[in-house]
Write a structure and sequence with these properties.
The complex is a heterodimer of chains A (168) and B (293). With 168 residues, chain A is α+β, with helices and mostly antiparallel strands. Chain A has 2 domains: 8-83, Roll (Ubiquitin-like (UB roll)); 92-158, DNA polymerase, domain 1, CATH 1.10.150.120. Chain A has helices at residues 29-36, 92-100, 109-122, 128-134, 146-158; strands at 8-14, 17-23, 55-58, 61-64, 77-79. In chain A, a hairpin with a 2-residue loop joins strand 1 (8-14) and strand 2. Chain A is elongated. In chain B, the strands form 4 sheets. A 5-stranded antiparallel beta sheet of chain B has the order 4-5-10-6-7. The chains are: A alpha+beta (168), B alpha+beta (293).
């Protein structure tokens, strides 16, 4: 049996706060967020990059945190679902998910919200196709997707996007 | 069973030179680790047999898209998202962008890399058929220097390739097309997003009037490696596209590929669909070779 390898120090920023971690370099970012930092909003679904439940942003880029070894988070800025609202003030996407019934069991919701927030950051005025593409990596087994889709459209409308005036 | 974390090592070298020294000091002990979209899946499933990895994700020497009059050269760490964002690729190598857009969802496209897809050597990769028909070349580097290899023939068998343990893929070079090529790409999977291919087809052709002046065809998931179908190409070259040509090409392709039964599909289905997609490439009036220019 090989010698056990040791932990290493990793510095990054999580939801705006500088964090110093001591972790195995191959530890999944997902597990470090949940177990070391107690940020349990990020969920594990499939554990193989298919479902998007573990979505977080690294330097503004959408990733599956189950596929990122924590060593690759060194020096980066990470945003999780816990960093989406500003204090008690929910993000427009979160408000819209509530208004439209975009969540049922809730496992996919943090990943869906992160992906939608990222979509609106990259594409402030998305088309229908942009929304479907932006969320294609996030699976939901409850809602049938329509309410989630409507929630993102609602968030766009609330932000003054006119693409969807007559559609919903 | 899940992997036992302390069995694994992952190191971040400060430069490409340092990474190459590690690879050459202990050949075969260390392996490159890029975006992790394949390796982490195996790791979590307890099926990642190799234990020591070098994190190359942060090496700037392996990034970027460079355009010269003759070539477009992509750093091995070019992600699928970067492929789709590149204007020159969208214009001159559209099938590569199409392949990138059909590989996983956005989060996978943000981390998955072209070099990783090649080194992972899956016969079901989505970008290799496009790279094959675009006559891609690979730059392999080690402490001994660099060498260029044609991508065609690089994969010698299932998960086997012409790369030494002390080498890594630095870049991928595509010769820029001289004339107007027609491009056709088709991935057939269980569903549109995320699914791994049952078969994947890439074809380009140059037409002179109704005649096929030149044609290149490659297929994924129909053999132990992604294959360029030279014999089918030879059948097509110089001919007009009519029923007889289509029949001859279908017959030749059926002899040229050797699909198998596996978890994603059956040999029979793959053969039928490959032949139908070939016919679609030749005859489709909307996006195949019969389309109006």
């Amino acid at each position: 049996m090989a010698e056990p390898t040791s932990k290493t120090e990793i510095n990054c920023t999580v939801n705006g706060e500088a964090v110093r971690l001591n972790a195995h370099p191959m530890a999944r970012l997902l597990d470090v967020l949940r177990e070391e930092l107690r940020l349990t909003g990020t969920k594990e679904g499939c554990g193989e990059g298919e479902c998007g439940a573990c979505s977080v942003l690294i330097d503004g880029v959408l990733v599956n945190s189950c596929l990122v070894p924590v060593l690759q988070a060194e020096g980066t800025e990470i945003k999780t679902i816990e960093g989406v609202a500003s204090g008690e003030q929910l993000h427009a996407v979160q408000e819209a998910f509530i208004a439209c019934g975009g969540a049922q069991c809730g496992i996919c919701t943090p990943g869906m919200v992160i992906a939608a927030v990222n979509l609106l950051e990259r594409t402030p005025e998305p088309t229908e196709a942009d929304i479907r593409n932006g969320l294609a990596g996030n699976l939901c087994r409850c809602t049938g997707y329509m309410k989630i889709f409507e929630a993102v459209v609602r968030a766009c409308q609330n932000q003054g996007n006119d693409n969807f005036k007559s559609e919903i | 069973m899940r992997a036992y974390l302390p069995d694994y090592e992952l190191k971040s070298p400060g430069s490409l030179a340092e990474a190459l020294s590690l690879l050459s000091d202990e050949p075969g002990v260390w392996r490159p680790f890029a975006g992790g979209t394949d390796l982490m899946v195996l790791f979590e499933a307890g099926r990642l047999a190799h234990k020591k990895f070098i994190n190359i994700w942060n090496l700037p020497e392996l990034r970027g898209v460079e355009v010269t009059p003759e070539h477009v050269t992509l750093g091995a760490l070019t992600t699928y998202t970067e492929v789709q964002a590149s204007e020159v690729l969208r214009k001159e190598f559209p099938m590569l962008c199409r392949a990138a857009s059909e590989t996983g969802g956005l989060a996978i496209q943000n981390r998955g890399t072209l070099g990783g897809n090649i080194a992972n050597a899956s016969p079901a990769g989505d970008s290799p058929p496009a790279l094959l028909v675009y006559d891609a070349e690979l730059e392999l580097v080690s402490t001994e220097g660099a060498r260029w290899l044609p991508y065609e023939g690089f994969h010698t068998g299932y998960k086997q390739m012409l790369m030494r343990p002390d080498e890594l893929i630095k870049s991928i070079r595509l010769p820029r097309p001289a004339g107007p090529w027609r491009h056709y790409y088709r991935k057939v999977g269980t569903r549109k997003a995320q699914a791994i291919s049952k078969i994947c087809f890439a074809g380009v052709a140059q037409l002179e009037g109704e005649r096929i002046a030149d044609v290149r065809i490659a297929l994924g998931s129909v053999a132990p490696v992604v294959v360029r179908c030279a014999r089918t190409e030879d059948v097509l070259k110089g001919r007009e596209i009519d029923e007889e040509t289509v029949g001859a090409a279908r017959a030749e392709l059926a002899r040229e590929i050797s699909p198998i039964d596996d978890i994603r599909s059956t040999a029979n289905y793959r053969l039928q669909v490959a032949l139908n997609v070939l016919e679609d490439f030749l005859t489709n009036a909307e996006y195949g070779l019969k389309a109006e220019r």
